[in-house]
Amino acid sequence: MSQDNAALDPAATADSQATISAEIEAAHAAYASGVAAGGAEETQPRVNFPPYRSSLLRHPTKSLHHTDPETIELYSPAFGERDVHPLEADLTIQHNGEPIGERIVVAGRVVDGDGRPVAGQLIEVWQANAAGRYVHKRDQHPAPIDPNFTGVGRAITGPHGEYRFTTIKPAPYPWKNHHNAWRPAHIHFSLFGTDFTQRMITQMYFPGDPLFALDPIYQAITDQKARDRLVAAYDHSLTSHEWSTGYQWDIVLTGSNRTWMENEEEEH
Q1: Which value, in Å, is the radius of gyration of the alpha carbons in the chain?
Q2: Phi and psi (nearest 5°) for 143?
Q3: Helix locations, the chain, DSSP H
Q4: Is-contact 41 34, C-beta < 8 A?
Q5: Structural contact between residues 242 and 217, judged by C-beta atoms closer than 8 angstroms
Q6: Which of 190, 203, 162 is nearest to 211 (CA)?
Q7: What residues contact 263, with CB distance under 8 A and at least 6 apart?
Q8: What is the pLDDT of residues 202-229, one digit of tens each?
Q9: How far apart are CA 158 and CA 155, in angstroms?
Q10: Helix (H, G, I), strand (E, B) or coil at 126
Q11: What dihedral do alpha carbons 93, 95, 100, 102 form, nearest 10°?
C-alpha cells in the first residue's frame, strides 16, 4: 500500500522537488561563477542554504559567548559506566536475532590535515535500518522497525587512526523539507577529541545514489570535490565471502581537504 506524504502533512506540499532543484542549481551556478572570478572555494556547507528550508533555524543568529566547559559536559552525551567494548562496533549482534538487510563493513582512518593518524578517537555511529526507519519516536513514517536492529554503535580508533564497523546498509527515507522529499542513504558519524566540547558530526553516503542531486542537505556543500569526500568507496578487499560487502571511508579533521561537519542540532 502506498501512502502520499501530502495527505499526512499538507505543509510538505508547499514546494515541489522541481522548485528545490532549481534553487540548488542557481546556488551552485552562482558559486561556480564566483570561483571562476577568483573567489574562494567552499569546503563546508553554507550556514543558510535556502533550498534546505530549516537551515536558517540550525545555526546561531547572535554573537557567540564563552561558557563554562564543565557546565556543557553536564548536558553532553554519556558513555555509560564501562569502557568501549570492541563488540560495540558490530551493529548486527546487539539483539537475539539477525537484522534484515544487506550486511556491510565500513572501515577507514581518521587523520588530520597532514595525513597523520588520530589514535584513541571515540567514534559513534547511528543510522536508519534497511527500510529507512530510525528507532526514534519522532520517526513515524510507514516503514517497518526491525526488532533486531537498533542502528547505533561506537568504536575507538587504533594506533594508525583506523576504525571498522559491521552494520546493515541503510535505506533512503522521506523527510519534510518539501513534497516528495527523500534523503539519500547515509550513516551519521560523531567524533570526539579530548572532551565533549570538541564533538564533530558528519554523514557518510554510498556511491552512485540517485538522490544526491535532489537532496538539499548534501547539495548545501556547493563545492563538488567537498561533496565527493562524503561518499564512501566500495572496497572488495573489505568484503567477506558469503557474508558482507565493504566500503572504505576516511575522515579528515582539519585542512583544506577536511571532511564536512554539520551542526549538532542536525537530525537528518
Answers
A1: 19
A2: -125, 150
A3: 5-8, 17-36, 69-73, 224-228
A4: no
A5: no
A6: 203
A7: 58, 59, 201
A8: 999 999 999 999 999 999 999 999 999 9
A9: 9
A10: strand
A11: -20
Instruction: List strands edge to edge, sheet with 122-127.
Output: 152-156, 122-127, 186-191, 200-205
Q: What is the pLDDT of residues 18-56, one digit of tens each?
A: 999 999 999 999 999 998 888 888 877 888 898 998 887
Distances in Å between the Cα of 138 and the Cα atoms of 31, 56, 82, 148 are 35, 21, 29, 19
Concerning whether 134 is annotated as a catalytic residue, the answer is yes
Assess whether 183 carries a catalytic annotation.
yes
User: For residue 70, what is its C-alpha cell?
Assistant: 564543565
Name the catalytic one among 173, 205, 218, 247: 173
- Of 178, 179, 186, 258, catalytic: 186
pLDDT of residue 80: 54
Of the candidates 133, 179, 183, 229, the residue annotated as catalytic is 183
Residue tagged active-site, from 52, 134, 218, 247: 134
136 is catalytic: no
- Of 188, 227, 229, 258, which residue is the catalytic one? 188
